[in-house]
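Aim 2 progress update. The chain analyzed this quarter is reproduced below.
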Amino acid sequence: MSPKDMVADPFRIPLSALPTGAAPAERPEAARIFAVGLGDAEQPSAFAVLRQRRTTRMMMVIGWQCDEALSAELADAVLTFAASRDARLIRATTGRSAAITALGLSDSGRGYAQRWIGTEIVSPHHTGQFTQTTGFTCGPVSVAMAMGGDVTRAVEIEIWREATTIRGLTGPGGCDPYGTALAAARRGFNVELWFDATEAVLLDRANSAEKQNLMRFVQSEFRAEAERQLTIHREALDGRGLTQAVQDGAQVILLIDQCHTHDHHAPHWVLLHAENEGCFLVNDPWAEPDDGETVADVDCIPIDLETLVQMGAYGDPAYRAALVLYHKP
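Predicted C-alpha cells:
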C-alpha cells in the first residue's frame, strides 16, 4: 500500500496486519479485499474486512473484529471508507450480527442486511433469487429470476433445454439470444430483442468445425422462429435505450463479457430490473466460489450505466445483445 493510498483512505490498513485467516488472500483476478481499522495500521485495535466486485458499487462485510466500546467508531470508519470509494451500498449476511447492529443495516428479507449510502434503488419487480448450478445456465436463470417467485433447479434446466444452442469446449453449453428470447416469450413475457450481430455468434465456445456447424444450424432455426414471433431490432440497445426501458418498467437480460468482473473472457447473461440516477440493480446468476461469494454478493447489486455499457459487448468483432422483457397485461 502506497503512502498516497494511506492519505486518501485514512482508515484503510494492510491485509498483512490482520490475524492469520482473518481475510482471504488477494488475487489479481479476484474481487477486491479491503481492511478498515482503528488505531495503529500495523496493529489495529479493531477492524472490518470488506469485499467488493470490481464492477459493483457495493461492499460486502466479510469480517468484523471489534469490542463493543469501539463498534460505533469502527462503523463510522467503514462508512467513511465506503463513501470515499463511491460505494452506494453496504451489505452483510445475517450471521454477522455485530456488524449489522454497528452499521445500522436493515434486514432485506432476502438473506442479508444492508444500508444504502445516498438514494436507495427500489425495484418494482418481485425478482427471483438464485445462483446457477452449472457453468452454462446463466441465461435460463436470468429468465427464471425475471419470472419472480421461487427459482428452482428444475426450472433452470427446463429453460436451458429449450434455449441451448452452444456446444461447449468440454461439454454442454449455454444459450444464444434467439433461444433465450423465445424461452422468455413462452413464459408470458412480451419480448423485444436488440441484437446487432448478422452471423452466428458464440462460435468461439466450440473447439471443432463440427460443433460450430451444429451451432450455426441451431441458431438459424431459433432465429427463424424468433423472427416470426418477436420484435427484433437489428442494432444494439445503447445506454439511453437501456435506461429508458428499465424506467418504463421492463426487465432487461443483458449479454456481458465476464472479463470485467472475473478477468477472463466468457459470455454471460445478467438481469437488470431497476434504475436510479444512472445506477442499476442487477441480479448476476454467477457467484464466484474462488472469491467465497454467495447469493448475497450477486443479488440486487448496484452497477453504473457506464460500467454496464462497457461490460455489454462480447466477441471479436464485438457484438451486443439485450432482451427487453415486459409483463403482459
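The first helix runs from residue 3 to 8. The radius of gyration is 21 Å. These observations will guide the mutagenesis experiments scheduled for the next reporting period.
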